[in-house]
Amino acid sequence: xxxxxxxxxxxxxxxxxxxxxxxxxxxxxxxxxxxxxxxxxxxxxxxxxxxxxxxxxxxxxxxxxxxxxxxxxxxxxxxxxxxxxxxxxxxxxxxxxxxxxxxxxxxxxxxxxxxxxxxxxxxxxxxxxxxxxxxxxxxxxxxxxxxxxxxxxxxxxxxxxxxxxxxxxxxxxxxxxxxxxxxxx
Length: 185
Prior knowledge:
- With 185 residues, the chain is mainly alpha-helical.
- The protein has a single domain, classed as Endonuclease III, domain 1, CATH 1.10.340.
- It is 52% helix and 2% strand.
- The protein contains ten helices and two strands, in the order ααααααααβααβ.
- Zn(2+) binds at residues 5, 19, 177, 181.
- It comes from Liquorilactobacillus sucicola DSM 21376 = JCM 15457.
- InterPro entries: Adenine_glyco, DNA-3mA_glycosylase, DNA_glycosylase.
- One of its GO terms (biological process) is base-excision repair.
- It holds the Pfam family Adenine_glyco.
């Protein structure tokens, strides 16, 4: 019998599929890592199930999260996004995603991409936690605080330690599958 982390059993089939096939899997693809950071920003204050339901609309609205395309969005594009009922239309979050595309572009120009930058901070190793209960999983750690500060110094916005912790889980830097979860590595 397949067992899943508690959070993956309380929403839609999309949530379950995300848990089983994506969350916690090592991801070093630049576009995909930028997408996950952007989605985590959109999720702040909301629930992940809602973001997953809107994921395809986000991909369409943000040009597939192609960093170089998002980095050059202008005020006209911002207004278009603010009026797109298929996505979360929070202006601060939209502007942060555009800003972060610009920051990721600068990182690339300096010789490293966002994915490589984040993975280097973890010494290219997965941090494996062995939590037995969902209540034990923190919302932030000293490491997520360090990564948040480093991202902020590189010009990224809306990247506090809690959003960064969720982002690190999403791209597999941190393996927080519960100890009983069938998907624990």
